[in-house]
């Protein structure tokens, strides 16, 4: 599991994939007036992602190049590129660098298991929600199986040492709902699992489904009965994509595509397929 989720140095390279068509036309072109026009002129959509979060984005170590990046979010990125008529490029990086890469203009879009947060909306343009009924609707903890009876409610974790990925929703939930807990920030989820296994923390805050996935790969771990209290406004259900602040033309086009994805149920199909791939790699999500 640890080997699967670790982002190797080679995986930090960019890979380009040809979509259904290219925007490479002859003749002179005017300077792009916004990010959408820029993407159309260069003929490529660059997506930033942290591939350590199955079934959204993870690495299939039986493959290489761009094909090694798999998951429902990867498929969404491909689909957006196809609908824009451009090629698709992935830039893999630590989760903490994903949003900043968009802010700095090194990537056009960030899709990496993000949920809506007020501070994110202040700094970026956030898309309509997707995966509204999936893993994003439940957030809880991965704990040692020996502690299953100890952590059955959120109150039981009030003074625990909890690992959470930097800048994640779970980090925010831990700060808000467990203010007396000792928070240990980690840069990747596999580091959080390692900290749990070695007794450095009592729990790893993550999505409920991801906790089940980690537990399926380690018989000493289990998803805790305790879960965060999540109350969503319907506008902010599920996960979101992020683009540079002010790039409303690009956001509007992405929202059109995501609305179509939701209407057709495509994300659910991609998620199901991603879980099947994860299962082949030793990660099980369904009970």
TrEMBL record:
Keyword Isomerase recorded: no
On the tree of life, the source organism's domain of life is Bacteria
Signal peptide interval: 1-19
Q: PROSITE patterns attached here?
A: PROKAR_LIPOPROTEIN (PS51257)
Q: What InterPro entries does this protein map onto?
A: Solute-binding_3/MltF_N
Keyword list (alphabetical) reads:
Signal
According to the entry, every stretch annotated as the Solute-binding protein family 3/N-terminal domain falls at 44-274
Keyword check for Signal, yes or no: yes
- What is this protein identified as? Polar amino acid transport system substrate-binding protein
Which taxonomic lineage does the organism of this UniProt entry have? Answer: Bacteria, Bacillati, Bacillota, Erysipelotrichia, Erysipelotrichales
């Amino acid at each position: 599991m640890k080997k699967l989720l670790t982002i190797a140095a080679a995986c930090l390279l960019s890979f380009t994939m040809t979509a259904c068509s290219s925007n490479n036309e002859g003749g002179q072109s005017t300077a792009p007036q916004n990010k959408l026009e820029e993407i159309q002129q260069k003929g490529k959509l660059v997506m930033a992602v942290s591939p350590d979060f199955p079934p959204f984005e993870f690495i299939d170590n039986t493959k290489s190049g761009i094909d090694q990046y798999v998951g429902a979010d990867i498929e969404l990125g491909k689909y957006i590129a196809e609908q824009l008529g451009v090629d698709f490029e992935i830039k893999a990086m630590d989760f903490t660098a994903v949003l900043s890469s968009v802010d700095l203009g090194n990537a056009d879009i960030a899709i990496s298991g993000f949920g809506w947060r007020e501070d994110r909306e202040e700094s970026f343009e956030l898309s309509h929600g997707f995966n509204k009924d999936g893993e994003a609707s439940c957030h809880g903890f991965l704990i040692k199986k020996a502690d299953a009876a100890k952590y059955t409610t959120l109150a039981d974790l009030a003074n625990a040492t909890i690992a959470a990925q930097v800048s994640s929703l779970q980090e925010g939930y831990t700060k808000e709902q467990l203010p007396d807990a000792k928070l240990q920030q980690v840069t990747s989820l596999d580091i959080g699992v390692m900290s749990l296994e070695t007794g450095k923390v009592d729990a790893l805050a993550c999505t409920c489904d991801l906790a089940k996935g980690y537990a399926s790969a380690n018989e000493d771990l289990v998803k805790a009965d305790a879960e965060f209290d999540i109350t969503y406004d319907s506008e902010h259900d599920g996960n979101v994509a992020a683009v540079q602040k002010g790039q409303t033309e690009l956001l509007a086009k992405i929202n059109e595509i995501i609305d179509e994805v939701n209407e057709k149920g495509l994300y659910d199909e991609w998620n199901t397929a991603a879980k099947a791939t994860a299962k082949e790699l030793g990660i099980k999500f369904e009970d």
